[in-house]
Amino acid sequence: MTAEGDPEPADAAAAVDELALGDPDLAPDSDARLAELAQLWELAEALGFVDVEDTGAVAGEVADEWADGDDDTVLLVWRQALTEMSAWSMLTDAERAAEIDLDLRPAGSTLLPLFAARRDGLPLARVSGMIRQMAVNDLSAGRADEAWEDWVAVHGDPARVLYARLADLGAVDIDEVDVVRLRPLGLYALWTELSDDLEIPLLPPPEEMPAEDLLAVGTTGTDDDLRDEWQGWRAVRDADTAARALADAAREAGPDERLIATSLLRELGADAVWRELLDEPALRPYAKQALADLHGPAPEFEQDDEDLAWLLLDLYCAVDEEDLPDDLAGNLAEAVRPGEESVFDTMWRLDHPHRHTVLTLIGRHHPDADIAKAARKASFKAPNS
What we know:
The protein is mainly alpha-helical. It has three domains: 9-195, no CATH class; 211-302, no CATH class; 308-381, no CATH class. It contains 20 helices and five strands.
């Protein structure tokens, strides 16, 4: 070892060849290959895989624990590796390059928004933008562009470099369109770290999970999350038990959960349960739709103005004015056609918490001026709750 605690140059060069670090054809620059060795050396030393003793280094005890340890030990070491790499990987590069302008220390903090994104992941370009913003935060606009471009030209985009290393570690995947996602092991590690400071409950096993938790997955997770949990939850219940649990949850649910519960109920058939829900004003419109699908059109399943008004309120109450769907105007035109404006008079009278919001939305965005005016007029009568 050198006086600075690094492998002697000859040993470092031998290690680069022995470990086949980098591609000598693609990266003939030996310094670039030695930079990757520096990353591995820092990680090995931080984890206790190697111990530096005076002028030499020997294998550390953790190397044996990693190879032969039980699951808990191995997971603990891997979690520490993820923490260490996300914390100092880019800093090690900056120190080797004697970079003093860019602050690359916070680069690893981009794992947190990636954790929030879960299965959807984030475009690598967006992650790069986050890192750039943090790295140049203390620089003037002109110097910020110059410093960033100089670094990328020589060392590559920090996001691509960092996340390639995390992919090698097994923490993330980067797909063919450069979207980066945490792998299950990465999700587990971050959840474990965050749950020490924040309350992030795990779902109970499917056989113990109440229907309310299942609906919560639908409102906070992705469609794939809901589908996975639904399949496991449904597999340990007969159709009638599952249907009654969903119906009970739907009775107490808000609009978002109600839409999810009734959608899942329709997959079960559940004729008897749907007939019971005909007596529930908030669920009657969904029950009529489901029973019409099961038995065909019948007068008893026809939607009246109150049913249609309630469906409109449930359907559009979650629309965000700051992020409107592209097809909103077309959908509203289909939902309320000329001559059907009387539904607004029913809507404002219903005991629905979002009647004012939805009538205001329709009044702003319905493409028919007369229908929009009628919705705005009704919104003035609806309590703003």
